[in-house]
Amino acid sequence: MSMLNQILEYNTEFVENKEYEQFITTKFPDKKIVILTCMDTRLFEMLPKAMNLKNGDVKIVKSAGAVINHPFGGIMRSLFVAVYELNADEVYIIGHYDCGMSAIDPQSILSKMKARGIDEKTIEMMRYSGVDLEEWFRGFDDVTESVRHSVNMVRNHPLMDNTVPVHGLVIDPTTGKLDLIVNGNENR
Question: pTM here?
Answer without folding.
Answer: 0.91
